[in-house]
Design brief:
With 381 residues, this protein is α/β, with parallel strands linked by helices. 30% of the residues lie in helices and 16% in strands. The strands form two sheets. It has an eight-stranded mixed sheet with strand order 1-2-10-7-8-9-12-11. A four-stranded parallel sheet has the order 5-4-3-6, sandwiched between helices. Helix 6 packs across helix 7 and helix 8 packs across helix 9.
Length: 381
Amino acid sequence: MRASADARPRAAATPVATVHEHITDAVKSPDLIRLTGDVVLARFETMKVYAALGAVRSLLRRGRVVPGQTLVDSSSGIYALALAMACHRYGLRCHIVASTTVDATMRAQLEILGATVDAMPPSQSLRLDQELRVRRVRRLLAERPDFHWMRQYHDGVHHEGYREFAELLTEALPEGPLTVVGAVGTGASTGGLARALRESGRSVRLVGIQPFGSVTFGSERFEDPEAIIAGIGSSIPFGNVRHELYDTVHWLDFRHAMAGAVGLLREHAVFAGLSTGAAHLTASWEAARDPGRLHLVLGADTGHRYAERVFARHAEALDPAGLRPRTITSPDDLRPPWSVMEWAGRGAPQAARTTEGDRTAGAGAVEGDVPSPVPTVELLP
C-alpha cells in the first residue's frame, strides 16, 4: 500500500553550527531534550556558568572589579570551575577555597586554568566544611583587602546571568504556562530563572528540591547518611534563596535521587548528576498530576562526579515507577524518604533567615538583596 504524503520522510533542515569565541559560550548552552510529551530536560555540562559569567560581566560593567583583580569564593566544585573559566575569559585571577568534595580531576582543571586552590582538610560534616571555608575566606580578605569576595551564596548578582537563559527558553519552548523543577542550591538558578520568566509575562510555577538535613527549607533536624548531593541544599543560611518565589518544595533522600538519576539514564540515555535525577523523579510525579502543562527539568551537570558512588551501584537503584511522596501541609510533618508541600510563597523558616549583611556583595559593599539594573555596556569576548 502506498504511503500517504504525510508519512514521507521530510528533508532535515541544514544544521547551523556556531563558532564560539570562548568555551564559556559553548558550555552555558543547554541541551533541550523532550523526555515525555509534558516534560523537557535542560541538561547542562555545568549550569553555574550562567551564574559566574553573568556575575563577572556585571561586576566589570559596574566597575566593582577590574581586570587583573583576584576573585575569591568557596565552592564544592561546579561553581569553582565556572568562576575559573569566567576569570580566564576576562583576565581576572581566581582563588578557590575548595570543599573536601572537590576531587583530583576538578582540582587539576582549576590549577591549569590558573586558579589558586585552597583545599580544606576532611571534615566530620558538611556544615563544618562550609563553616571552615567561610572562615578561610574571611582570613584571606583580612590579609588581602584587594580581593573581591564573590559570595555566590548571598550576592544577588548571581541571579542576573539566568535572564539570558530565560530568553533562550522563551524562544525554544511553546507559549503557555510552565512549571520549572530544579534543585534549590544557592537559589540563583531556580529563583533567578523563575523571576526572569515571570517578568516576561509567562505564568511560571516553581518547584524546588531539597535534601534532608538542609536548613534552607527546614529539614535540618534530619540526617541522610548517604547524602552526597553537593549543591542542592545547605547547612547554613543562603541569602540568595528567595523563599517567596517557590510554589512547591520536595524533600528527597539519597536513594530516591539515585533512582531518578539511574532511571533517567536507563529510560532516556541521559547521563546527568544526582540533583538532575532528583528533579527528573519529581517532575515525573508533578507532570502526572497536571497533564497538559509543560514541565522543565533543570539538569545542572553531568553524571561524572557520581560515576562510582551512584551509577556503578545501578543494580541497587529503586524502581522510580513505584515511588511516591508523602504530602504534608507543614514542615513539622516532614518525614523521609520523600515529602512534598505546597510552599505557596511562604517566607524563610527562622533557621534559614539571613541578616541584611549576609545579602550584601562583600566586604565594604552596599549591594542590596535585589539585583540592581545593569548598564548596557558591551564586553569583548
